[in-house]
């Protein structure tokens, strides 16, 4: 299995364990809405455009609500999670290994934690080193885009491990260090700062600017 396939299986497991009405880290979404988001993103490209284009967000939200609607009961929810677990068909580029790794490795990891941490702090999932390395490689490629709204510089630091400057400061802002395990750095970069176990170090004003764009420390 590729890493994104492993992450897909982990997400499906977390969704099954949670049930249809569990809170998530995604504001306003229960677990069934998050599952519907995954299905819409992979199978309805026109409807999913609002994920990237804010002007189309209402269209995407309507599609998510439509897919999530039948999943309020156990049978409907089981069917929806099965669609998440199965993924798109072979002709869908999202199922291809290279595209899937780029599009889904971090996405599915974060959504698994959205479900797991939706009710509060939990112990991190145990990950072997090869898995951690795969997350780190993808994170350092994606981080410049993920932190693009931050006016401060950002350096990601893994205790006892690698570090990477992923954004330069703009204007008179300084640089902030975000320190934590790779999985926690991924969550921080994806705007789950309040749920991520990280230390954010720097000038207080710069730290506040970063928190504004990442959902907290």
From TrEMBL:
TM ranges: none
Single GO molecular function: metal ion binding
Domain annotation Mycothiol-dependent maleylpyruvate isomerase metal-binding: ranges: 9-87
Recorded superkingdom: Bacteria
Pfam families: MDMPI_N
The name this protein goes by in its record: TIGR03085 family protein
Organism from which the protein derives: Cellulomonas fimi
